[in-house]
TrEMBL record:
Domain Glycoside hydrolase 35 catalytic: 11-328
Biological source species: Streptomyces corchorusii (Streptomyces chibaensis)
Family matches, as Pfam families: BetaGal_ABD_1, BetaGal_gal-bd, Glyco_hydro_35
InterPro entries: B-gal_1-like, BetaGal1-like_ABD1, BetaGal_gal-bd, Galactose-bd-like_sf, GH, Gly_Hdrlase_35_cat, Glyco_hydro_35_CS, Glycoside_Hdrlase_35
Protein name as it appears in the record: Beta-galactosidase
Catalytic site positions: 156 (proton donor), 232 (nucleophile)
Amino acid sequence: MSAFAVGESGFLLDGRPVRLLSGALHYFRVHEDQWGHRLAMLRAMGLNCVETYVPWNLHEPRPGVFRDVGAVGRFLDAVRGAGLWAIVRPGPYICAEWENGGLPVWLTGEPGTRARTCDERYLRHVRNWFQRLLPEIVPRQIDRGGPVVMVQVENEYGSYGSDTGHLEELAGVLRAEGVTAALCTSDGPEDHMLTGGSLPGVLATVNFGSHARVAFETLRRHRPGGPLMCMEFWCGWFDHWSGEHAVRDPAEATEALREILECGASVNLYMAHGGTSFGGWAGANRGGGELHEGPLEPDVTSYDYDAPVDEYGRPTEKFWRFREVLAAYRPGPLPDPPSRPAALAAPAGAELTGWAPPADVLEALGGPETAGPVPPTFEELGIARGLVRYTVDVPGPRRPYPLTVRGLRDLAVVYVDGERAGVLTEAEPRLEEPVAGPARVELWVESLGRVNYGPRLGEAKGVTGGVLHERQYLHGVRARGLDLDAFADGVDAVPFGPVPGDGAPGLYRGTVTVRGAGDARLELPGGTRGFVWINGFNLGRYWAVGPQRSLYVPGPVLREGANEVWLLELDGGTPDGPAPRLVPV
């Protein structure tokens, strides 16, 4: 057993000074069969520690219903097997460009509950979650022979709120449930963030991408003693749909890392390996500058992050440059990087043999239909990730008037009397052509990802304000939701028919035959927007607006011979259809 401690000027391991050279790798963004390879890549880069968040919403999809919480323990066992230490950041809020910042939608949608505060209803849910989660972490602390050296309290709380009593409550729960490892907080290197987000007696760390000396000077004004640590050194960045692919010059990033280390500080590379937001779990941000109140900016499925180890697990130029710098701070020679995982041997096109229109998919896999005077939100329908069909009647006879959706989040494909009438968004919520009555209006509303950072965290999805014809609210709205989790049990209940020749929206089913299974990319040259599953594994969202042009398919997902493909096209592709094909990486 070893003892890890926070000393007066640095970290101590069994009484000897030690520096944490850590890298972020999220177990939930990497296929479990590839954890070992990615951890070996971090070790080969010169790191001695790995950091991971824990997304609450992934593991507790409904109150009291838990899903594979044991993955946390299995990952920490893999970390120990790789010869690394671990920093665990269990939140409960994590940001991470992850749906709703990791908070369950049933929690943030609960009337009266105030997340990220001392609200007792919120804290009761947190306690219940931690009581289930922490048994995966506590036995794996370093003083019990495990890899966990540090546990973070909340995440960047100072950029959100000032309820430090909330942080004290969280720290108390962690200690009460057996966490003996060092506790820490992390915030931006600004006075108001460190004031609102740090706790007496708990190590304060800072997050930044450059100007390390200035950042640490700010930290020292708040904490004259204790170790210096950058908990998030942003060596890359993430992408938004319809935006540009973010890159950071490797030489410039390397010099920024060198400056951190020359300050005598510990560091956590964010990200060392980004991975992929499989399953439609990518979050979203709000633009509009520092207030984050502007247009929705959904995050892409790839979380490559321009990291030193790319989405496919390959070393980049940044990897080799970082390795050269980090080697000077590690005893002995660094291990060689592990061999690359096998890649798909040859391209393979999928044969789509069945199709079902959206209404039939909803009938087979959707939840119950509700009816009421106003449209229910996704949260009221229990829909975390997916879409909702709203149906409302325009009374008649009446002349054509504009039809507007107030509070639309996020995107709606609209049909009037069965004919497609347009696509509405939060920014453009009015149909181009007026609607006369009587008429039947259907709005297929899709969530593009919940906000993961800023004051709009926890905002509702769906039609949150109402449907207007001219200035009159249309009442008597029927609603039925289709959650992505409904596909977990398969699609055999869906009545498939022949594939149409016009690329119509709906659920496509088919197979792709593989020879030489391995890592691949799935290309969808004829698809517009939707989700893809291979052998029941949800690869995530695709969208023709870019910048992401293909989806990563981990080799362990594929098998020799026939592989089942499901493709939920939500907009309508080219006349030739989505035409998915696998290509080697």
